[in-house]
Each structure stands twice: as structure tokens, then as C-alpha cells.
Amino acid sequence: MSLPIFWFCVIALLWLGYLFLEGFDFGVGMLLPVLGRDNTERRVMVNTIGPVWDGNEVWLLVAGGATFAAFPGWYAALFSAAYLPLTLFLVALIGRGVAFEYRGKVDTERWRRNWDRVIVAGSWIASLGIGLVLSTTVLGLPLNEHGDRVGSPLAVIRWETLLGALAVAGYALVHGAVFLTLKTEGEISDRARRLALRIAPVALLPLVGLLLLVQLREGAGWTWVSVAVVLVAAVGALLRLAKGREGQAFALLGVAVVGTVVTLFGALYPNVLPSTLDPANSLTVAATASSSYTLTVMTWVAAFGTPAVLVYQGWTYWVFRKRIGTRHIPAVHVPK
Amino acid sequence: MHVLDVARWQFGITTVYHFLMVPLTIGLSLLVAGMQTAWVRTSDPRYLKMTKFWGKLLLINFAMGVVTGIVQEFQFGMAWSSYSRFVGDVFGAPLAMEGLVAFFVESTFLGLWIFGWDRLSKRAHLACAWAFSLATMASAYFILAANSWMQHPVGIVFTDGRPRLTSIWAVLGNNTVLAAFPHTIAGAFAVAATFLVGISAWHLWRKHRESAADDPDRKVWHSSLRLGTWVGVVAFAAVAISGDFQGKLMFEQQPMKMAAAEALCHSEKPAGFSVFAYGDVARPDCENVKSLTLPALLSFLAHNNFSSEVKGVQDLVPEYQAKYGANYPVDERLGELSGKPIDYVPTLPVTYWGFRLMIGFGAIAAGVGVLALWLTRRGRVPRTKWFGRLALLSIATPFLANSFGWIFTEMGRQPFVVVPNPSGVDGVWMYTAQAVSAGVTVGEVLTSLIALTLLYGGLAVVEVFLIRRYVRAGIAGVMPPVPPEGDSDDGPDDGSGSGGGSAKSDDVLAFAY
């Protein structure tokens, strides 16, 4: 396998990590007012992701940085073309990140309610935004021969990319509910399970729709397999969840993300960002890749860095493996 | 209004803002890790209180640094896509390394540290503090290596119109970053030290005025103050020494920047250092400028002797024109600059005053630190009214010095975004005007500029509000009072869990959002 192809796979892997991990913390944020009926319950929810959400987000930063390093042309074209959606996405990420840290720092109802709104809106907007950007890179943009967007700032907003936005948001919603089933106890856990089972058939539809769309338009023969894997894993996840096996359900949703990423990136290859104007303007893995020296350097860094990340992030999840319930939540103690 | 101007304002605002949080995070992280180490080694509750109090302020600030950092990584691609394409082969690598090596460690171990008080052994928990604080330093190194490459490109060949990386070690070992890193880190410790000194001096002064003896946390503030002053002494000395070193390097690598720092119009031999100028510094011919000057000092700052020549702006311009061209290339994407003459002189008032304000605020901060050291010798606390206020106000000075330093160095390299290396590979430079995204409209960049500026402004208010609240509350704000009957626990060092002090028996979490 050539280095550019290897790095294309690494970037797919980083997206996989991001969607799987931040997917559930987006979901928890989106469901905050739905599943958390009072402040203590909402604190339970926030604390299931408290120690890990920031580490989850870094997967996206590294995906961005790795794209810059390995495929500068891809990074430049995609980020500048999706300027407005990315701006909104950044505002949402900033808001929710600060909100997690600040929501408990003043003990008034109003303070918490405002930050809760930021968390909910931020999680929705961010998951929709990242779905839009991901589906844009797969489905393409009107690009000229320099790799710059032609047309209006809203060229990235089409029904196909809106479907992509809903696909990620819907997935995050279900993934978050299953995560909460797994990580909380008592009433909240039951509520999360019932909610996941109720919404999943609708919430996962956009994802299925996106995959079929991509597969029919750009897919290869073998990517039918990964589409099938997503369908089987999603159905399996719901069946296991109904049986009270939320751990297995959560893992199966992970398998569904694997299938999703394989389908999307499999269909995308050998492009990294197709041009909808003229296939000759499409950005490809080969043409946008950095020099082989740069890719070699990055390969060494990734070879040592990635296993270490998996080990210590895995350790974090192990340290905070216990379920949390309302009885674990300490009294509020903040300056008066 | 042009995309270029709006994008530059956005980069300036977001970067200066981000760098208000960053130095405090870097300096304070390591100092908090040090405090916690002292607690783990001595079991003295004073150090636990210090860890908790300064750790809380650190977290309030850390969150802001993290979220504003995301914008930094994204806007290269969003607003500066031509730049990203040009330099990606080299510049992307340190950025990706920063993510893979530093951000992952930082975010993961910070989470473990915040929530791990009762889940980890004392030593493992302490190790987490060191892990994330050292990661902040690593992060600084990678991003400074990237910035230094823009200031002084090395480790490359020039093929097909783009620089290609040939040696990552040359990029990571660039003498520009070897100078910039100590200067920046020393600046970060200067910020953290002044923060410690200002707040603990204020606490001592306030309690002292109310009642001299009965402040149970007096030792906490006193230790924090001493720590701050001594760290400050070392940090300010290091800032000055590394700054001098960096300055000499800049005279070699970017003579125009340093001439602009002085608003030195004509070459002088020996050259004097202008302390203060009045009149119109903006004119590169220096008509109408009167300046208070220390003779021959600039020659020393540039070349370590009091006699050599320092080149002025007017003599450098023809040299730059001869080497890098007198006009911009003809390219429709340059807009109205296409084919026009290149102005090689940075905005002189910004560089001249930026340089002086950097040094000036740094010197004030250092002076206040020395004053605090003297006034609080052997456990004294001044009673004068102005002391508390002055202590708090002084906190702003190293922040300002840092900001002006960056504004100076980034404005001083204009019109280049990638400055040509005088002894490097030919052809590797880029004008800022060429760097901006070609496909992006003014409306888009203006939207993000307004959105981010408003958001950042709002968040600044919130952060200052929270920091103020926690500062005023002191130790009581971060550690719940020990229940009156609570001597069932084993001794004073058992603060370990102490977030949930009141109910140790059941499974209540030591810390929760």
C-alpha cells in the first residue's frame, strides 16, 4: 500500500474515532432536557461524559491536522468551501465546551438553565454541522481547477448534504441514549433505554438514506458489504438493547460507525473531494498528497502516537467505568 | 473592504485572544503540578489548599484556551487556503504532531485529573497533573516550531513552486524556535507568577486589614506569594535573556522587522536605541520624528558590540526589492494588488510601539514583582490602601507584554506571511496578500469575524466574572468546610477526596460537574 493510500485510511480511522466517541457525547448533550428531569439528573448525564468529552473532541482536531499535513489541498479546499457551516460548527463547539466546565460554577437556576441551553444547541448544531461537512467531502462541491469553490457560500448546502447532517445528528441521538443506558443507573437508565428504542427507527433512517445514496452514486461493488454491515449492526444493536444488553448494543453501534466510515471513504476513493463541475477538477488522494518524506515522518509519529492514545484513552474509560446515578452526585459547593 | 483585511483582523483578534489564555494555562499548570507534588510529598494541607484553589482558577481558564484553540487550527484552511496549499507539506506536520502528541495527552489527563481525585491513587493522580502540564509545553513547542518556520523557513527544497520538507529535524531544531520557545515559556511563567503574586498579595492584604491573626489560610497565601515572586524573578530574567538572544537572531534573519521595531529610517553606525519617540513614526523617512535615544545600545542589541552598523528601513527597502522583486506578480487572485509595487515596510507605529510596550509592560510587571518581594519580606504584609489594588492591577501587565510581543513580531514580518530566509532556499516566501482563501467571499469572513468577536467578548466577561468570584471566595470556595464532628477521618492529610467531604461513607463522587 502506498503512503498516500495509507494516510487516506488513517484519516478515515480518525473520523471513525471521532464519530464513535464524540457521537455519544453529542447525543448526551442533545438529550439533556429530554432525559434529565431535574438538575441532579442533568448533572448525572453531564458527568457521564465529563472526564472524556474533551479527549473525544481531539479526534477531530487530529483528523483536521492530519489532513493538513498529509493532504494540504484537501484541507484547504474543504475548509474554505464549507466556510459558513464550519463557522457555525466552531461557535457551537466553543459554546458547549465552555458550558460543560462553567454550568456548575454558580449555584442559581438561571445560570444552569442558560448553560444547559448552550449545551443542547451546541450539541445539535455541532453534530449537524459535522455531518454536513463529512457528506460534502464525499458527495463533492463545485470546484474550479485551483480547487476553490465556485458559486455561493451556501453551495455546500444541498438536500444531499442536509441528509448527511441529519444522518450524523440522528446517529448521535441514538448513540447518546444507548451510552446513557450503559453509564447511568436506575430511572435515568430505563428512560434512556425506552427512548433509544422508540426513536431509533426514525433517527437512524437518514444514516441509512445517506449510505444508500452514496453507494448508488459512487459506491464500488464491495462497499455493499459495509452498507449491509451497518444495517445488520444497527438492527442488532436495537435487539440487544431491548434484551437489556446495553453494552453489546453500544458495541454494535460502534460496528455501525465502522461500516459507515468504510462505505463513505470507500466510495470517495480515489478522490478526496470530487468536483461536481468537472471530474478533471476533482481532488484526488494521489494529487493532493504531501511528499513521501512528510508522509514517512508522519507515519513514524502515528506509529508511536496512536497506540499510546488508544491505551491511555482506554484507561480513562476504565477508570470511570462505573455507572452513575443521582445518589453519587455531591451537593453543590461553589462560592456564594 | 477586502477578504484580505477582514481575514487578517480575524486572525489577529482570535490569536491575541487565544494567547491571553495560553500563557496562564501553561505557567499555572506546571505550578499547580508542583504544588500537588509538594502536598503528596509532605502531606501538608496547605499545599492541598493551594492545589485546589489555583487548580480551580486554572480549570476556568483552561477551558477557554482549549475551545479558542480549535478555531486556530481550522482557520488556516478556512480563511488562508492558498497559504495552506503552499506550505502544507511542511507546516501541517508540526500541527498534526501537536494534536497527536500534545492535545490527546492534555485533554485526556486533564479529564483524569479533574474527576480522578478519589478514583486514582495519590501518585497516579499526581502523574496526571504532570502529564497534562508537560503536554501544554509540548504543544507550545510544536506550534512555535510551525510559527518559526514561517519566520525562517528551513529543512526544505523548492519543487514545482512549493516548499517540500526534507528534514523534520531542521524544522524542529530551527534556531528561530530554539530562541522563541524559551522566550515564550518564560513569558508564560511570568504571567502565572504575577497571577499568583497579585491574588495572594490581595488576599493577605485584605485579611490583614480586617483581622491580623485569625486567617486560617494565611499560610496558603503566603506560600503562594513566595512561590510567585521567586518564579517571577527567574521568569523575568529568562524573558530578558532569551529576548536579547532572539532579538540578535532577528537582526540576522529579518533585518526589516528589527529596523521597524526601532523605526530606524537610516542606517546608523553605531546605532542608538530609541526609548521614546514623538512625532509621526509612521513615515519611513523619519521626517518630523524626535526621539529620546540611548547611544550605541541598538548596536549592542543587534550585534553584541557598541560600534557596528545597524541598517535602517530606507536602506533595506532597495535590498528587499532587488532580492524579492519590486512588484507583486500579476495574478487576478491578488485583486487590486496584482502587479502593484510591494510595500516592504511594516506598519511602523505598530512595530515601534508594540516593541516598546512589550518591553515596558514586562519591565513594570518585573518591577512590581520585586516590590512585592521586598514589601512582604519575612512575613510582612503592607497595610497601605493602594497595595491590594496595585497587586490586582499588576496581573494585567505580563498579559499585555505578551500580546504586544506577538503583535510586534507578526506585524513586523509583513508584507510576508512566510518570510524569506536570507541564507535559505531561494523562492520560498509568500506574501500575506497571496495567502488568503481565493474562493471565500468578504461576507463569509465578515460573518465569522463578527460572530467570533462577539462570542469571545461575551466569554471574556464570563471568565473574568467566574475568576473574580472564585478569587474572592478564597479557599472556602473550593473546599467544603470540614464537618464539625468530622474527626473520624485519619488526620489532616486526608483532604484527598475532599470535594465531597461531608459524606465520605457512601459512594458520593469526590468531584462532579
UniProtKB/TrEMBL annotation, chain A:
Write out the GO cellular component annotations: cytochrome complex; plasma membrane
Where it mainly occurs, coarsely classed, is membrane
- InterPro entries, alphabetized: Cyt-d_oxidase_su2
Alphabetical keyword list:
Cell membrane, Electron transport, Heme, Iron, Membrane, Metal-binding, Transmembrane, Transmembrane helix, Transport
Q: Which residues cross the membrane?
A: 74-98, 118-141, 161-183, 195-216, 222-242, 249-269, 297-320
| Gene Ontology biological process terms in this record | aerobic electron transport chain
Is Nucleotide-binding tagged as a keyword?
A: no
Q: Can you say where in the cell this protein is located? A: Cell membrane
Q: Which domain of life is it from?
A: Bacteria
Q: Does the keyword Transferase apply?
A: no
Task: Write down the membrane topology.
Answer: Multi-pass membrane protein
Q: Which GO terms describe its molecular function?
A: electron transfer activity; metal ion binding; oxidoreductase activity, acting on diphenols and related substances as donors, oxygen as acceptor
Spell out the NCBIfam families in the cross-references: cydB (TIGR00203)
UniProt lists the family membership as follows:
Belongs to the cytochrome ubiquinol oxidase subunit 2 family.
Which protein, by its recorded name, is this?
A: Cytochrome d ubiquinol oxidase subunit II
Species this chain originates from: Solihabitans fulvus
From TrEMBL, chain B:
Keywords, alphabetical:
Cell membrane, Electron transport, Heme, Iron, Membrane, Metal-binding, Transmembrane, Transmembrane helix, Transport
One Pfam family, please name it. Cyt_bd_oxida_I
Transmembrane segment boundaries: 20-41, 53-71, 91-115, 127-150, 185-205, 225-243, 353-375, 387-408, 445-467
Compartment(s): Cell membrane
Write out the ranges of the annotated region (Disordered).
Answer: 481-513
- List the GO molecular function terms: electron transfer activity; heme binding; metal ion binding; oxidoreductase activity, acting on diphenols and related substances as donors, oxygen as acceptor
Give GO cellular component annotations, separated by semicolons.
cytochrome complex; plasma membrane
Q: What InterPro entries does the record tag this protein with? A: Cyt-d_ubiquinol_oxidase_su_1
- Reply yes or no: does the keyword Hydrolase apply: no
Membrane-related topology note = Multi-pass membrane protein
One biological process term from GO is:
aerobic electron transport chain
Specify the domain of life of the species encoding this protein. Bacteria
Presence of keyword Oxidoreductase: no
Its family remark reads: Belongs to the cytochrome ubiquinol oxidase subunit 1 family.
Fetch the PANTHER family from UniProt. Answer: CYTOCHROME BD UBIQUINOL OXIDASE SUBUNIT 1, CYTOCHROME D UBIQUINOL OXIDASE
Name of the protein described by the UniProt record: Cytochrome ubiquinol oxidase subunit I
Q: Per the UniProt entry, what species is this protein from, by scientific name? A: Solihabitans fulvus
